[in-house]
Amino acid sequence: MHDDIQEILLSEEVIQNKVRELGKQLSQEYEGKNPLCICVLKGAAPFMADLVRRMEIPLEMDFMAVSSYGAYTQSSGVVRIVKDLDTPVEGRHVLVVEDIIDSGLTLSYLLELLRGRNTASAKVVTLLDKPTRRTTGLKPDYSGFEVPDAFVVGYGLDYAEKYRNLPYIGVLKEEIYSV
Ligand code: XMP
Ligand code: MG
To answer: Hydrolase as a keyword (predicted)?
Structure first.
């Protein structure tokens, strides 16, 4: 285990089993729909890469980068599109792939934006959900795990751009972000 990690919340095996399960479910759900899977960069990249390989149906991938203005470990609700999609989404079944939903502000904004472009459907799959932090009515359509209100890193999630490459999800030692 990495020295900066206090506790492993979700092991690599537990994550991969869940990703397989979600992939199977989404394969059934999106059969014949050629969904456009949208990865929200950067955090969702590992999840997206693993998930699409467990979806055994024709699909397309695209990437979006957004940044929320505001505090470091908190989202402010003001979302800026840093990289937009390359693919027109009108009439498409889009599936937004997220790493974690916290307040839900980022996703509420994104879904509204996508639906405004006249998608056939716009749904969300998130690996992690922190429902106790929700300030919006947003509910993910598909979700891997509920996590407690702690700052978690690994499997895409970062602190100051570090730890994204850990194959598991863990809680960072407090001394790392309190200095
Ligand atoms: P909102 O509040 O808009 O925030 O749902 C979603 C984004 O906030 C980040 N986030 C985290 N990142 N560990 C992280 O590394 C966490 O525990 C955490 N909680 C929220 C993340 O970028 C997510 O997309
Ligand atoms: Mg994110």
So the answer is: no
